[in-house]
Amino acid sequence: MATRELTPADYTAMLRRRWVLIVVLAVVGAPLAYGVSRFLPNKFKSQTLVIIEQPSVPERIVGSLDTQDINQRLSSMQQQILSRSRLEPIIRQFNVFPEDINRLSMDELVARLQKTIEVTPIAPMTETRAGQLPGFYVAVTLGDAHHAQEVCNAITSMFIEQNLRLRQEHSEMTTQFLSTELTSAKANLDEQDAKLAEFKSRHIGELPEDEQTNLNLLTGLTSQLDASTQALARAQQDKSFNESLLSQQESAWQSSQTGRNPETLEQQLVALQARLTTLQSSYTDDYPDVIKAKNDIAVLQKKIAESDGPNRAGAPNKGLKTSTEPAQIQQLRAQLHNDDVMIASKTKEQEQIRKQIDLYQARVQSSPAVEQQYKELTRGYQTALDSYNDLQKKLTDSQQAVNLERKQEGEQFVVLDPANLPDKPTFPNRPMFALGGLAGGLGLGLGIAFLLEMKDSSFKTERDVEFALHLPVLAMVPEIIPAAEKKQKMTANRNSADSEMEVEARA
After folding, report:
1. How far is the C-alpha of 50 from the C-alpha of 116, rounded, in Å?
2. Residue 493 burial (10 A CB sphere; 0-12, 13-18, 19+)
3. Most exposed among 28, 56, 117, 159, judged by the fewest C-beta atoms under 10 Å?
């Protein structure tokens, strides 16, 4: 059988031959395992349920500063709470391991207590946003029920206090950091503001927003310069005309005083001078008519000096000294004075307008360079302002979040089911030990039976003979049973049949 392929009929035959061994081991295994469980120390498990209560104020109104995933935060708190510095006081306070406190070191007791504490997150029943956890279980398994309950309550309180403290510390540290950054941002903003103000004061009228105004003013000043030039030309013409009239009036008045004919060389000279003035107002000094008029005036002045010099030297002066000029001559002199004042005023006005034109032209020419510098300063100032406003808003939100945590209106750990006092041990589970012993004995019996069958070299069936000898079986010798053994088997079969019938009748 060990060398040929086994069939279900072979396995059935094995069970028929070895069923006593299998049943005996299975029956013995159950009470044996139960008896072993009676000698194992009892373990009591105390458990509490902590739910994670969401903030009472919606996050869209006051956002939370704690962006850490709740699973990560819970794992971090578990490492801190299960540290030696936190568990050692619990061991001493509740005398958790009284039988081993003097025998084992504190490190060994802490490691032993750590193994008895279990923190199990609750899986959400529905799909929630990432990082959201409904709650978690805290379970403590110890040899004493009261100790298990007390330690479970202490660990749960640590989780609640640690969560509240961590959230408050995180919010306060964030607020403090934002306050420091806001102070630095304000200093930077003040510096940029001072630079911008100093640049504006240094380039008044040259800023980009003044460019169009400068162009408009430059256009207006150009028009004013043209009008002033025309007014100056008119004033000069008026002066020349009034000078000509004055010369004629003086000549006529002097002639009337000396009794001479008004048609004299002086009148010709006045006429030539008036004509020269008219020509100069329209032409330059190089114009031929202007040159000819100047030559004629020079020749006439020479004649007057040669012919009438001695006589005219004394008589007119005496007449002027003894008589008063007519009102027309005085008016002409006043008009000439006004013309001189007007010419001086217009000349000065032209100079001022030209200076203003030069100033605004310089501003317009320097406008691109000033605009580039102004843009850089404005960009830096706007960046500093945006950073300051953003930090100010974040600081306000952070302060609100701190107040929310202090008033315990944020995310909290709430005990839903307090730690229970176990009334029976969770280990060992004696019924489960008995079932395990039954299953173990059954498995052991099957294994031993199979090994015995594999070591049995006898032939059990016709197939074993054919497989071993490679020859067909011609005849089978029946088993010869003695009469006494045969009678005993028949009695046993009859008693078995009667028992089955009795059981069926009772059923």
Report:
1. 18
2. exposed
3. 56
